[in-house]
């Protein structure tokens, strides 16, 4: 009579052990997302590009107006980083679905996730060599890092469906995001000390920034070892074999064939597609706000790097609690309604950003606090909500489409931001233009019938959605 409870307890302990390992990958990659993707690298690469183009770094009062020449096309140095992210995401639209289709067929998902993570961490570590006029090297490493981040996150997100049931995913997803924000906070706090105390350490600010980039790559690579050791490999589930002429198909040929089949029959899941489109819009807005915040603060508002890092630290710390709070709120009101409320707050944020006065720290910190409240929650709940709409056995394949609009791989938002800046010479109209993404995303999300979508995907209905 005591065997069943004992077995149940052992199973629960094993589940928690694996979930904690899964949380650690959010902890690991957030070092790259915050230090490289959000705070330091975009303004640093902009300064390197401005020096190469103009012989000096531009300022808010005296920007560099000489363009870089890339294959005969003039590129404003201030827009370079955003164009690189745009290019990386356009390539991702073709590449990530193939990664997802392969992962769905592989019994070694964690190896795919960790392999891409380690390649990306190597690219991040190599950013320590970006100095002088090596803006092209910086652009290439940023491109590789974003591709590898997106690829690893495709598999990581898909594993959520393996380790958590329908009623557990909001909580598990929120804890993963919370762990990521805490990890990003700790690493950024360390980097803040290095950048702030660079004179006392006997190094230049540029070297301090490059060492911080190196630390982000090491953080990403080393902490990825934890999920590699803890996560279990599972056999593929409900994989449809696509006939290929000439005999048994290779893994890659099978994956291409299944991708075409998924796109062909996508109309079978209209609510899933509608959610994806809504997510593409509002997450483009979120990711672009995060990606351009440091450049906006430095180039438009005139803040020093130390202020920017301190503000992002505030965002990271508040987002840790915000992600956990949103998970609790979703238990009562449902994920969809909670996300929609968060999008209304995001609209207010971009309008406030347009009106922020230059060199006034308190309003800038207040905006950072508000961003932290809604940042983790909207992202964590979006991931768990989408997982309910995916047909079983195609998690990585569908999450690859999801990743097209995921953190650090937004393309339309960064494109709009870069174009508006290049046309107007100011970041203020560029930031307020991002409000359109939240408006469109909110309208589309309000039309998603979650119960219908879960039923069409053949999944178990959770208690609250």
From TrEMBL:
Looking at the UniProt entry, the stretches that span the membrane are 80-99, 111-129, 135-156, 177-195, 207-229, 273-297, 303-326, 338-355, 361-381, 401-420, 426-445
Which PROSITE patterns does this UniProt record tie to the protein?
A: MFS (PS50850)
Q: Which residues form a coiled coil?
A: none
- Location of this chain's protein in the cell: Cell membrane
Please classify the protein's predominant subcellular localization into one broad category: membrane
InterPro entries the record matches? Atg22-like, ATG22/LtaA_families, MFS_dom, MFS_trans_sf
| Membrane topology per record | Multi-pass membrane protein
SUPFAM superfamilies associated with the record: MFS general substrate transporter
Every Major facilitator superfamily (MFS) profile domain range:
271-465
Q: Tell me which UniProt keywords the record has, alphabetically.
A: Membrane, Transmembrane, Transmembrane helix, Transport
For this entry, the protein name equals: MFS transporter
Q: What is the lineage of its organism?
A: Bacteria, Bacillati, Actinomycetota, Actinomycetes, Propionibacteriales
């Amino acid at each position: 009579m005591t065997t069943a409870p004992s077995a149940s307890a052992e199973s629960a302990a094993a589940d928690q052990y694996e979930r904690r390992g899964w949380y650690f990958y959010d902890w690991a990659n957030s070092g790259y997302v915050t230090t490289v993707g959000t705070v330091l690298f975009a303004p640093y690469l902009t300064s390197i590009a401005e020096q190469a183009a103009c012989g000096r770094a531009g300022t808010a009062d005296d920007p560099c107006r000489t363009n870089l020449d890339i294959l005969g096309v003039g590129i404003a140095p201030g827009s370079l980083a955003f164009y690189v992210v745009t290019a990386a995401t356009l390539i991702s639209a073709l590449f990530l679905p193939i990664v997802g289709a392969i992962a769905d067929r592989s019994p070694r998902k964690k190896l795919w996730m960790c392999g891409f993570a380690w390649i990306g961490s190597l690219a991040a570590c190599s950013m320590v060599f970006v100095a002088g006029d090596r803006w092209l090297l910086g652009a290439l490493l940023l491109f590789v890092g974003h591709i590898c981040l997106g690829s690893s996150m495709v598999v990581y997100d898909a594993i959520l469906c393996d380790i958590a049931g329908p009623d557990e995913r909001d909580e598990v997803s929120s804890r993963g995001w919370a762990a990521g924000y805490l990890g990003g906070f700790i690493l950024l706090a360390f980097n803040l000390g290095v950048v702030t105390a660079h004179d006392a350490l006997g190094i230049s600010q540029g070297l301090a920034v490059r060492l911080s980039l190196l630390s982000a790559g090491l953080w990403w690579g080393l902490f990825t070892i934890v999920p590699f050791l803890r996560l279990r490999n599972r056999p593929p589930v409900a994989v449809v074999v696509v006939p290929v002429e000439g005999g048994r198909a290779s893994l890659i040929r099978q994956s291409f064939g299944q991708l075409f089949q998924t796109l062909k029959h996508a109309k079978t899941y209209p609510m899933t597609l509608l959610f994806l489109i809504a997510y593409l819009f509002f997450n483009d807005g979120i990711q672009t706000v995060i990606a351009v915040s440091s450049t906006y603060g430095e180039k438009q508002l005139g803040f020093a790097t130390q202020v920017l890092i301190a503000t992002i630290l505030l965002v990271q710390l508040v987002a840790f609690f915000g992600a956990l709070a949103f998970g609790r709120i979703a238990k009562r009101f449902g994920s969809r309604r909670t996300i929609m409320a968060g999008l209304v707050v995001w609209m207010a944020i971009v309008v406030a950003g347009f009106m922020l006065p230059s060199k006034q720290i308190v309003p800038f910190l207040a905006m950072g606090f508000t961003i932290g409240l809604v940042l983790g929650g909207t992202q964590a709940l979006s991931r768990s909500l989408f997982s309910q709409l995916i047909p079983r056995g195609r998690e990585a394949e569908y999450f690859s489409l999801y990743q097209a609009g995921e953190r650090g791989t937004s393309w339309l938002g960064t494109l709009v931001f870069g174009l508006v800046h290049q046309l107007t010479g100011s970041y203020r109209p560029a930031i307020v233009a991002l409000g359109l993404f939240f408006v469109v995303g909110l309208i589309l999300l309000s039309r998603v019938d979650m119960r219908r979508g879960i039923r069409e995907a053949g999944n178990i209905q959770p208690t609250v959605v």
